[in-house]
Amino acid sequence: MAPRKRWDDEQMKAAITAVRHKEMGYLKAAKIFNIPQTTLERYVEFGKINQNPSRIFNCDETGITSVQHKHTKVLAMKGKKQISTLTSAERGSLITVVTCMSPAGQFIPPMIIFPRKNMKLELMNGTPPGSIYGCHTSGWIQADLFTKWFQHFIDHTKPTKSDPVLLVLDGHYSHTKNLDVINMARENFVSIVCIPPHCSHKMQPLDISFMGPLKTYYAKEIENWLRNNPDRVVTVYQVGELFGRAYLRTATAEIAANGFRKPGLYPCNRNVFRAHDFFSYGKQ
C-alpha cells in the first residue's frame, strides 16, 4: 500500500487563502493543493475561531467541600509548641463546580452540583450571578448534568455558522461518551477538542491558572467564616456564598489569558512543547 501523501504548511496556507478570498471552493482547492477536503474544511473553520479569543473556551470540573484543605501560615512566639488553627468539621460534603473561561477573559457562570436528590434554592444563596445548579447523591458530574451545563454554555455563547465556538475539555466520560452533547454541538456550531489523557496539568487552561487560586481563596473564605462564627461549622448551606466570593476573586482577565497562553492554545503556539514534555506519560 502506497504511503499517504502529506501536505505542508505552505500548501495549507495557500488553500485556506484561496477559500477565504472566494477564489475557489473547498473541492477545487483540495484537489489543486493536494489536501483532503475534510481536513481543509476543518482548518478553515478552526482558523475563524482562533482569530477571535472570545470564541475559544475551556471547561473543567473540580470538587470543593465544607472542609478547608489549605491553611494559612500561623505566626507564634518562638518556642511555643502548641499552635492552633481554625478547622471545620472533619468530614465535609463534596460539591462539584463546573467552570468555563475564554482567553478574552469571559467566564461562563458556573454550575454547582450538590450532593442530594432534591434541590433547595437556599443552597444557591451567594453564588456567582447567573450560576445554575444540579443535584446528584454523589455530588459528582453526571452525563445528564453535563448536558444541562452544555445547553447553558450554548445559551451564553450563542454560536452560529458564521460565528462558531471552540470548546476544549478533558476526556471525562460525561463529555466524550455523551451522544446528547455531541449532537447538540453539531447542531449548534460548537467544535469540541479533547485534551490527551494525562496531559491536563500541562494543557488545560483552567488547571494551569485558575483552579489553584480558586482553591486558595476558597480555603481562606472558610477560615474567615469560622473565625467569625466560632461556635459553628461550615455546612453545605454556606458553601455557595463562600465559593461565590472565592470565584469572583479568581475570575479575572489576567488569569484567563495566562491559562491559554502557557499551553500555546491562544495565541496559538505549536512550539510550546517538545516530545520529552510528555514522554513519561506516554510510557505509563
TrEMBL record:
Enumerate the SUPFAM superfamilies for this protein.
Answer: Homeodomain-like (SSF46689)
Mind telling me which Pfam families this protein's record contains? DDE_1, HTH_psq
GO CC annotation terms, alphabetical: nucleus
Q: Which PROSITE patterns match?
A: HTH_PSQ
Keywords associated with the record: DNA-binding, Nucleus
The protein's location, in the record's own words, is:
Nucleus
Q: Which residues bind DNA?
A: 26-46
Q: Which domain of life is it from?
A: Eukaryota
Q: Which InterPro entries match?
A: CenT-Element_Derived, DDE_SF_endonuclease_dom, Homeodomain-like_sf, HTH_Psq
Q: Which residues form the HTH psq-type domain?
A: 1-50
Task: Mention one GO molecular function.
Answer: DNA binding
* Protein name (record): HTH psq-type domain-containing protein
- Report the source organism: Aromia moschata
